[in-house]
């Protein structure tokens, strides 16, 4: 089933191919709207950074990629977002979306490892490897329909946030947006209890519309997350000096 998309996915797929080694055939292509709230020190109302993200799935691995196109929506009290403002901002940022890669994430369920590809402002490419973190989900009785799929509610805590996720056993792949996983079916929607982080389904294709593949290995220099953060902070300080 296809829902309304914000942007075509062609550019993301092109970027992914440019960073490919061996290829894994995708059996599903899912697009999410990713919304993250933040608030500055002035005490102003929350703002929301909104972007489109892609999840490609195989039976044993997945690739997640977030577009660089985004918008900041001011003064959002109830979580609603103006689609007109969103589309206008994404259109303005389309060139950035086409020209940059990075922030790719591969989950390998056989090995239990997660690999993130990060690209700095100086165009240096790094890989951050970590183990897939187990999330202790509690499955609830609540059910609802999302994009024609019967979904069931689950509650879990990850990185200090309490999430409400909706998954469907009709797609028996234990995956989801970002680093959320571990349920007996694909996560189609997830929101934290403070409404600061959310993932909403935009479209889903099973199988993908085209013969879509994704890399089974990402290229880059391996680095720890701490070292990458320190390197980025140092680069930011140099740019400001």
Describe the structure in your own words.
The protein has 241 residues and is α+β, with helices and mostly antiparallel strands. It is 17% helix and 42% strand. The protein has helices at residues 10-18, 83-92, 94-99, 225-240, and strands at 23-25, 28-38, 47-57, 61-66, 71-73, 104-108, 113-119, 125-131, 138-146, 149-158, 161-168, 186-192, 197-205, 213-215, 221-222. It has 4 helices and 15 strands.
Strand content: 35-45%
- Distance, first to last CA: 51 Å
Class of secondary structure makeup: alpha+beta
Q: What characterizes the major β-sheet?
A: 13 strands, mixed
- How much helix is in the residues? 10-25%
Uncertain ranges: 1-20, 72-101
Topology, please?
Elements: H1 10-18, E1 23-25, E2 28-38, E3 47-57, E4 61-66, E5 71-73, H2 83-92, H3 94-99, E6 104-108, E7 113-119, E8 125-131, E9 138-146, E10 149-158, E11 161-168, E12 186-192, E13 197-205, E14 213-215, E15 221-222, H4 225-240
Parallel strand pairs: 8-15
Antiparallel strand pairs: 1-14, 2-3, 2-13, 3-4, 3-5, 4-6, 6-7, 7-8, 9-10, 10-11, 11-12, 12-13
In short:
17% of the residues lie in helices and 42% in strands. By secondary structure, the protein is α+β, with helices and mostly antiparallel strands.
Spell out the key features of this protein.
15 strands; 17% helix; alpha+beta
